[in-house]
What does this fold into?
Amino acid sequence: MLTQLFEWTKDFDSAYTFLKERKILAEKMVCSVCQQEMSLIKNRDTKVFRCKAHKNQKASIKKGSFLQDSKITLQEFIRIAYVWSRQITGVVASDMCDVSWKTICSWYQYLRDATSHHMLMNPYQIGGPGHVVQIDESLICKRKYNRGRVPEQRWVFGGWDTEDKIGFLVFVSDRSSDTLIPLIKKYIKPGTTIHSVSGVHTNNVECFWKNAKRKFKTMMGVHSSTVESHLDEFLWREVYGKSGKDAFDNVLLHISQWYIV
Ligand SMILES: [Zn+2]
It folds into this structure.
């Protein structure tokens, strides 16, 4: 896979071809004056669309895309999407992609936004007739080192389909049935056998909760405005990004479905 990354990002043309194939960038662009297809001309180390008849009519190759108005190069974008899909964290990612840590943070957020958008547009439900879903709640605490303060803690409610091996998780303010029942209806298909399994977990669900808890602990440190998108990313990876390759292919696919070029 790494060999492919080098191929895709070898030079401008390779990256441009790759992003057109993945429908991240438009194949062609028409002039806004005459509606004729524009031609592609070289412009420093990138390319730009220009109308043959109206030489002042130009359009960026990023126009209308997820990359519109961004400063990063096409190669940088592919590298960032690649390291994000492999869950490589900030400093190492910045080193590998040769961009600033700030750029990595911004783009990781944009990619998370793409997962949020997809989850919003394609809500999913687990279970179904003949399926068993194990539901559970867990208290996630973030240890505080300054004594005397109440530790930050939040309840998480989740379910796990033992057959499809897929789960959901949500933050909840309390564990009352008024809070949980609507969530069960939202995330679990009708006709599912629901087991409440506090403490008695099979291996798979144990693993799901362990990963979730680890993820949630790191999320407790992030700004509250981005907590939801971190949760979306976690669930998105459960469904679409089990492997780094899946995450990479699917995030590009979902971006191409979001920004239709
Ligand atoms: Zn024109």
Q: What stands out?
A: The mean pLDDT is 89.
